[in-house]
Amino acid sequence: MPREKPLNYGAAEPVYEGLSREHAEGREEWRPMGHSKIMAAAGETHWELKQPRGNDARWAEISESEEFRGLMRAKAKFLIPAIIFSFAYYFALPLSVGYFPNIMNKKIFGPINLAYLFALSQFFVAWAVAFLYARVAGKKFDTTVERIKENVRGRDSE
Amino acid sequence: MKWITYGLFGLIVSITIGITYWAARRTSSASEFYAAGRSLSGVQNGFAIAGDYMSAASFLGIAGLIALNGYDGFLYSVGWLVAYISVLLIVAEPLRNSGKYTMADVLAYRLKPKPVRTAAALSTLVISTFYLIAQMVGAGSLIQLLVGIPYETAIVIVGVMMVLYVAFGGMLATTWVQIIKAGLLMAGAIALAIMVMLKFNFNPVSFFDAISAKHGQRFLEPGLLYKDPIELVSLGMALVLGTAGMPHILMRFYTVPTAKTARVSVIWAMVLIGVFYIMTTFLGFGASLFLSKEQITAADKGGNMAAPLLAQYLGGGAGTAGGEAMLAFIVAVAFATILAVVAGLTLAASSAFAHDFYVNVLKGGKVDEASQVKVARYATFGVGTMAILLGLLSKGQNVAHLVALAFAVASSANVPVIVYSVFWKKFNTGGAVTGIVVGLLCTLALVAVSPNYFPAKEAIFPWKNPGIISIPVGFIAAFIGSLLYKEPQAEEKFDELYVRANTGIGAES
């Protein structure tokens, strides 16, 4: 796996963001801007990134890009129904054995009843959802993510 | 018999100490201590997640539940796998992309670090402590039961071992203890299940025919253990959502290099965990067939001895060499299982204290690498001592509900804030602190007035599991808290977290 380089938007100078003290403290990547005498004289500490990470506008640019929005649409289209289906299928088990015991006690194969098969099916349904997600994510989402990263690198080297 | 067991215990202790020695020489930076240098493969992490997750309670406890209560024991086991759907689809990848060592890293990304880290460290410590007490008490009584070592000695042995693994070997040693345990546990469960089914020519219908003939068809029908469906739904909600908020599980996603590897590791964990729980049903029902109810409850009222006694029976019965060897093997597997789970919990609790509270809240992040690791080691000694003391003090207490309580806190306090943090732009520090505190207090308050502590008729809250109320309360509290609090900076940084969580751009490597 190639190591992901920290995003540097090609800024020669660190990007100064006027973060307040309570936001900057406790973030290891921030340090107080020590070299501004004017600010020090004013009794104010401003903070800068140890590693220039870029400003909010550049992140916003990615988040508003067509590719990223497409990625999020595709993810939502898969994930929301998958989560709703999985939860509905799971909670149907305790509810149906609790409220419809007569149906669930129906024997299907010899003494093996519907309640047992329904419980057992939970394992296979969970596996199916997981495998399906891994497939879709591997084929679709990962490719789009790679493309977004390519674009970002391309812009940075300009 | 005792000597085989002692020999196998000694073997497990020496192998894991060897691993710790090896890992200690590779653990000097904070990222090595907390995240094994982010160097694990998907398969390794998958085994470790399974090893972190499947406790002795699930191995011995669920087999016993099924052996004594039939179908309802199986019903209980289902939620433990389905839980990983939430982990896989909602938290694993965003967490890997946006955090560093702990769950709180994700919250601190765009919110005010000090208040949210303090709140998250608090909930992590509460969850890990409850879970640890349950595991320690379980470990003490199980080892006493299985090998005849006194409860107190057993607690101290387990406590010292877990502290050694974590303090010296960090995440790397913990991981390999968990991987080995998962391998042993899977091998043990599959071997026993095959030996049970061999007696029925692998024909499930004749297996169930025998159960129905011995205990009556009622044994295979729901309702022997759980009378109230709402109770089960409430427990299910805590399991299915709570796993995605368990700090010791979430930490594991930082040990792999990318979000994709995190995804692969969840898939591996799901295969292992699913196969394990399906096998457990064969053990439980098998024990109900080959052993009498009196035999099982005479050894332990809760049924924890069902699986070990089944192993003894399958090996040739009590007093035979095969029977005693099988019993010793399963007992050793249970021992390894206990060690791996408590090590994971100790690491999670120590990280919450050292990384979140000490380094980032008290010291504002200004701590060098070597001191970070030193503090984490001290925290481990502290957590270990506390766990041993609480384990000793809780002797004879009924602590089984503490496991469910840990999941309920995780689902009500942690899950809402993790989800909002990554997916909701208007979420802010006010929401995070309110969500964690209200979710935590609501869960604890409901349990304090539940049938866990009162006779069923007097309890103010009718269910043992608070999830059905406390989870929505957690979500609503975090929502309202965000609306009441104004924090434009948290909104401005949302794009950054949103892009990073979903693409991995800028993720820790």
TrEMBL record, chain B:
Protein name: Cation/acetate symporter ActP
Intracellular or extracellular location(s): Cell membrane
Keyword flag Transmembrane: yes
Regions crossing the membrane: 6-24, 45-68, 74-95, 116-134, 154-177, 184-202, 232-254, 266-291, 326-354, 375-393, 399-423, 430-454, 466-485
PANTHER family per UniProt: CATION_ACETATE SYMPORTER ACTP (PTHR48086:SF6), SODIUM/PROLINE SYMPORTER-RELATED (PTHR48086)
InterPro entries with a match to the protein in the record: Na/Glc_symporter_sf, Na/solute_symporter, Na/solute_symporter_CS, Sodium:Solute_Symporter
UniProt KW Zinc-finger keyword: no
Family membership noted in the UniProt record: Belongs to the sodium:solute symporter (SSF) (TC 2.A.21) family.
Keywords: Cell membrane, Ion transport, Membrane, Sodium, Symport, Transmembrane, Transmembrane helix, Transport
Pfam families to which the protein is assigned, alphabetical: SSF (PF00474)
Membrane topology field: Multi-pass membrane protein
